[in-house]
Amino acid sequence: MRKHLIWVLGLAVALASVAFASLASGAANTQEIVVQVKPKKLPKKERAPISLNVNVFATNPGNAQQVPNPTTLALVDFDKDMKFQQKGFPTCDPTQFGSQSTTQDVKDACPDAIVGSGTATVVLKSGPGLPPLTVHAETVGANVKGNKVLLHSYTKEAGGVPLVGSFKKSTGGSKYGQMLVTPVPPLAGGAGVITQFQLLTDKITYKHGGKKLAIVSSKCSGPKKLDFQARFTDDQNQVATGTDTVKCKQKKH
């Protein structure tokens, strides 16, 4: 049975937030990203399969209940020692999913392309004078043709939210290699916001063209550390940035 991957990105991302206009103060969001990599002992030159656990948070101290402003674009940057490999892996058509689609619908339609599943925290607007309602969402990731990934979340209260992220060359700085770019639509028609999204990647290897490939791999070169960055743009064109660094060790051959 193939191990599953929860895409980082996603992870990005999928921390795309739609805040409540009545609660917005105009202040910028606060972004945080926390990452774990296993194993920490990696080759110096050749990349090896890894598991990746990414947890992304957004808050806004200037808003009521610290609900973040709406996010319109999510970028997650990955260390240049890392690589996301999708060549030869089965793909899924994301256009078949919408607000009524559950995570199980994605799994049923694209069983061979599934690359992960997980959870998120969603805040939904309540009645007048009442605090927002916090609910927990299910998520699923599926490989999409063209170096893309479907990040689909679902709650009974908010419905389905299919996001499609694209892997591109990072624009976040010289220490990053790839980034996941995810445009973000409103959640539940503007009545909800995802405030936390966890992305857990198991080691996944597969064969293509007679070669053994890994969905996510990494090495541990000179600095002996892996850098990560989350950059989220809100509907006021404000960019909130969070960073994290994971130490790694060089494996002796």
Can you describe this structure in just a few lines?
This protein is mainly β. The chain has one helix at 103-109, and strands spanning 10-14, 30-38, 41-42, 48-49, 51-59, 71-79, 82-84, 114-124, 133-144, 148-155, 159-169, 176-183, 192-201, 205-208, 211-214, 216-218, 225-234, 239-247, 249-250.
Write out key terms for the chains shown.
single chain, 253 residues, disordered N terminus, three-stranded antiparallel beta sheet, mainly beta
Characterise the protein shown here.
This protein has one domain: ntegrin, alpha v. Chain A, domain 3 (Immunoglobulin-like, Sandwich). β14 and β15 form a beta hairpin. The chain is an all-beta fold. The strands form four sheets. An eleven-stranded antiparallel sheet has the order 2-5-13-8-9-10-11-12-6-17-18, with helices on one face. It starts with 9 loop residues before the first strand and ends with a strand.
Considering the protein shown, what is the CATH homologous superfamily?
ntegrin, alpha v. Chain A, domain 3
- State the CATH class: Mainly Beta
Biggest beta-sheet profile: 11 strands, antiparallel
- Uncertain parts: 1-22
Q: Helical element count? A: 1
The domain tally reads 1
Please write out the topology.
Layout: E1 10-14, E2 30-38, E3 41-42, E4 48-49, E5 51-59, E6 71-79, E7 82-84, H1 103-109, E8 114-124, E9 133-144, E10 148-155, E11 159-169, E12 176-183, E13 192-201, E14 205-208, E15 211-214, E16 216-218, E17 225-234, E18 239-247, E19 249-250
Parallel strand pairs: 3-19
Antiparallel strand pairs: 2-5, 4-16, 5-13, 6-12, 6-17, 7-16, 8-9, 8-13, 9-10, 10-11, 11-12, 14-15, 17-18
